[in-house]
Amino acid sequence: MSERDNGWRHELQRRIAVYDEIESKDDWRGQMRAGDYWGLLALTVVLVAGFWAWGV
Amino acid sequence: MAKTDTQDPRGYRDAAERGDLPLLPAERLWGFWEFTYANSALAIATWAFLIGGAVGLFVGPREGIAAIVIGNIIGVILTALPTCIPAGKYGVEQFTALRSQFGPNGSRLVYFLAVVFLTMGWLAVLGMMFGRSIDGLTALVSGGEAAPLGPKVTVAAIGAILLTWFIVAKGPTSIKFFNMIISPALVLLMGWMMYLILSNHSFGALMGMKALAPPFEDNTLNFIIAVEVNLAAGFSWWPYIGNLGRLTRNERTAFWPNIIGIFGAATLGEIVGLLGSVALGNSDPTIWMAQVGGVAVGVIALGFVAFANVTSMANILYTSVVGLRQIGTSAIRNIRWEVLLFGFCVVPLILVVFYPTMYDGFFIFLVWTSALNSALAGIGIADYFFLRRQKLDLKGLHGDPATSPYRFAGGFNPIGIVALIVGFVVYVAVFNPQTLESMPAFKYLTASLPSCFAAGLVHYVLTRIFAKGEGWGNYPRG
Lengths: 56, 478
Description:
The structure holds two protein chains of two kinds.
Chain A: H1 3-25, H2 34-55
Chain B: H1 9-18, H2 32-43, H3 47-58, H4 61-90, H5 94-97, H6 99-142, H7 151-169, H8 172-200, H9 203-207, H10 219-235, H11 238-245, H12 251-255, H13 257-280, H14 285-291, H15 294-327, H16 330-333, H17 337-354, H18 362-387, H19 394-398, H20 414-430, H21 442-445, H22 448-466
Helix pairs in contact in B: 2-13, 3-4, 3-10, 3-13, 4-10, 4-11, 4-13, 4-18, 6-7, 6-15, 6-17, 6-18, 7-15, 7-17, 8-13, 8-15, 10-18, 13-14, 14-15, 18-20, 18-22, 20-22
């Protein structure tokens, strides 16, 4: 295995370790939570129902 | 795996930006508003005028605005969920992440089906729009008649594709320069067109206008076809937005800006296209723009739209060929950049010469792409949210494909491929984009939504039953 391959593998490992640490601490900042999904559903329902009632 | 030639940290970061490695949270610079601007710049393009004009063929402005909002909000949300949320969490390139659903070779196959065909089709359509804009502009100046299928349009369309090839061959800096000018100017043009239309017609009168060429007597069926065209427009972002989302800081900033940027901007542009087409009696924006405000306004608008098309073409050509090098074999990566770009332009050149009527029925091409994109969205939602519970194995995605848990069978996940075929077949069975024939259920369900649901359900059930051995996706159990 060449030096370049080793360096590449090491860098990939380093990056994966960063995500493993976030995962182990459950430290996902800005994660979509239940409130986001409920808000999304509400927005969709309001727009679809509202424009259906207005346009059709 | 595409490796960088350098070992310095900046080199690795560049490689991560290109998609060879996952981007770390600290390396991702886009916040909410940066991504919103980038999204808006992508969505505010000349195709919005075309899609709005196509909607005007089926329904009047009131129903058309409703169809634009309903179709786009559903399409954009179902597309952003499986693409932007994993990208915002892990910073992984979209087609690298797709290995978890289709395997490394399956991901390549999906790239060819979803990105290559879509991009080539749009290059041809936008090239023809450039040609028709130039033809309309010269007709306005000379006082003659425009000839949408004449040789001048063909020559100008060929010129547009070659000009796009030249710009993209020069690299991303020239594209960025055009984007910075064209996107804000297109917003101004849309506002100006809206002002001119509303100067000549009251809002009430506009809302009372009829469709240009409704294909059926059943108004509900015409309305659902208009919704379907907009669902297709929403789903058509599937190949592009994941790789923008990975440049954002987290899941929320990868997801919510799509609602303002993609949904909001595309909706605005389509509504202008719809009102212009119905008010002036022609679905082709290169025709109605020539009529909306006299010769001077027509010349400026058409000239601007012509070159805005080249910017849109440059954006999609650049993104697609970068992606092609990313997922391609070493043989593809070894092809010179200019040659690979030109190879991408051959099919669009053939289309503008031998199939110029594609422009007038471009929405048929758009709706065909939804048969694939809606199924891909369904599979992505089932796989990432329900089967994997939002967890990906980064080493498996970027490591040696021969030992990866995502290797499946020969690099293809047959379950994902079967689900994709089922979604496609369901779509065409419910609604045939070529003939506009549909099953009775189409009026209540559309075609994209059953396709999305069927593909996701098949992927979920077959994975639960069959994907158990080593190398079969490493799905969590229990």
